[in-house]
Amino acid sequence: MKQLSYMHGTCDTPLKGETIGENLRQIVARYGDREALVVVEQGYRATYRQFWDQTTELAKGLMGYGIRRGDRVGIWAANRAEWVLVQYATARIGAIMVNINPGYKTTGLRYAMEQSQIDLLIAASHFRQTDYIELLNRVRPFCNYPNRTLIIEDDWARMIRAGVKISDAELAEREQSLQFDDAVNIQYTSGTTGYPKGATLSHHNILNNGFFIGERMYYSEHDRVCIPVPFYHCFGMVLGNMACTSHGACMVIVGESFDPEAVMKTVMDERCTSLLGVPTMFIAQLEHPNFDRYDFSNLRTGIMAGSPCPIDTMRQVQTKMNMSQITVCYGMTETSPVSTQSLADDDIERRVSTVGKVHPHVEIKIVDEAGNVVPRGTAGEFCTRGYSVMIGYWNNPEDTAAIIDKQRWLHSGDVATMDDEGYVKITGRIKDVIIRGGENISPREIEEFLISHEAVADVYIIGVPSAKYGEEVMAWVKVREGFEVTEEQLLKYCTNQIATYKIPKYWKFVDDFPMTISGKIRKVEMREISAKELGLEG
Q1: What is residue 525's three-state secondary structure?
Q2: Do 386 and 474 have their domain in common?
Q3: 382 and 504 inside one domain
Q4: The whole model's pTM is what?
Q5: Distance from first CA to last CA of the chain, Å, rounded?
Q6: Which long-range contacts (CB under 8 A, 24 or more apart) does 49-52 make?
Q7: What is the C-alpha to C-alpha distance for residues 370 and 176, in angstroms, rounded to an integer?
């Protein structure tokens, strides 16, 4: 009988049975004089001991504001020092931090605040050209929450002063009352339909996931990790911050927004050993006209996640950026987030064609439509079980039951295969299928073919409406710098190489793709734009 698509991440290192605050306390005791956090744009630097003292001040301030164990504290800001302090201070007092997308406007903001019933909102005054105070004033008349709002630029010092009346003993008593299975974080997932759902994560979820992510990259107190991905998403706050603090490594933050040259300068100036990003971030750096001015000799490892990486990009990241031990991760917010990760010494083919192997202390399986585990090499739905699975969606038992079955397996909605060595390949979304004249077409398959063309830097395939076939295939193409290519040349490249019905009927050449702030491609928006431009609406 052929081996089944099931793996358990056996590991000699036990799970951490402690809260985030207790883990940080141990790290401070060991590495108190080492740098913990650097924020270049703010000119901020703190050692672990200074960082601990600042989270203590903030934790007392929150308690002085009346925040109790289990209360929700929203954070609505881009990457800055205060965001990280809020992350660890709320954990130390048992509050539940609610991540609010910096890109939210009135509808998203109001929904997140109301659905999680935020007790205190900590917000920046603005982000880019968006005036947060003005948006808050617009939604306040229609919201029962938050009970209280604090603007970082105006009210931070006032909140710190509010903590003066809280004694060390009161803070210690609060910390000692906490359990590692307590909820510590709510993250709103960007679903393709309906309102976002609040994935609720515990200390146990994100502390252990961050720790084992760092273990796969051999993190230690000597590492300095450049984190240009957003904190409001698991990529920034778990793969970034939590992986660092659980090892005594330094979190290096560039600024509020991604700028490829600023990232490269920071990597060089701060002697970073690790760099995180989605493939488009790495491509932006590699193709930057000033790339050769920067020194990447200190880089060793990092994470590329969020979408598939073209093999040429991975090769350049390993050679030109010196990231020989870069890893690829796969997961979702609901799993804290990482379920699989490549190994630091995997060959380049493994890193671009798979998402690695099962994480320590995690179970994974691939099942058919009936829920039966399929043989190795057979496509099915990727499922995972273990410490990393979320507590559930906040105040949403129905949607929780729809994704986590009675045996606590979380169903991802992703189509995957597992090879004989346990490496997993994600081949698409169950619902991300183009149905053309009754034929099911995987966008991922066409994307992987077109990316092999030397002139194609990046490509995404979508389905657009068709009166005749239901849907037609369309390609959005970003041309590699220094190259030129036409629609006719790409059509010729496809001919006799992929099935005729899979060859895109429509082509759009772009400089960039619509993305969420966390770097995920917004195919829904691409479809809307394309349908309008092609006159295919309705």
Answers
A1: helix
A2: no
A3: no
A4: 0.86
A5: 50
A6: 51/85, 51/88, 52/24, 52/25, 52/28
A7: 46
